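Listing S7. Sequence submitted for prediction.
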Amino acid sequence: MPTFHKYHGAGNDFILLDDRDGGLLDQFDQPTIASYCARHFGIGADGLMLLRNHPEYDFEMVYYNSDGAPSSMCGNGGRCIVRFAHDLGIHREEYKFLAVDGPHRAKILDNGNISLEMMDVLTISSPRAEAFVLDTGSPHYIAFVADAELVDVVPRGRAIRQSQPYAAAGINVNFVSGDTKGLSIATYERGVEDETLACGTGVTAAAIAAVHRINTPTGDFRIPVRAKGGMLAVSGHHQDGRYTNLWLEGPAVRVFGGEM
């Protein structure tokens, strides 16, 4: 039976598996993954990841949502799998790994946090006032509200996620308050189909949207973001509506392990 490891990044929690031998991936179909991620009948997690060997990178990240389906990029998952790699004895000054949206770099900081390079964002749309849609490795709908803490996240998020034109592919819905000095965020996540305590790609999208909505001058930014599960931060550079050199920083913690 495979050994599993449970990690979380600001409350966004994951089951991690060491598949460097290459024998695990074929054992996991969608119902099996969903059963392991189930909160009351399984281990419980927002997603499941396998760390696999790759000839050109330190490792490959293979990620599934808690419904058992393959997922787009997960920022907190990316940070957690870097911590997992370090715990497995893969030690690098700078990690380079492959995820579903392409290659990523990551660093373990002196304070113990993991900083993960995110994909560039070159296109942002605004379907309605105070709302933005952008892709940071996963698609996000960012709605600015008076107070993210007061939003009834599940019904409001589910209504947007299931509306047109998002219903078929799904979209993550983030309710955000604050400004570029500091944000608060609450997230409804597709694939989990529920609120999650943090979402790394969503935090990244929120920080970009906060810069974009006020049309600040070209330059660098760093924005602290409070998710319900903890503090994260996003830094980057923006110019002419293009957002590059994006890094997501925050905690990544091992919780426990065991046998499936």
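Caption to Listing S7: primary sequence and predicted structure tokens for the chain studied. The chain has four helices and 17 strands. The domain at 125-246 is CATH 3.10.310.10 (Diaminopimelate Epimerase; Chain A, domain 1).
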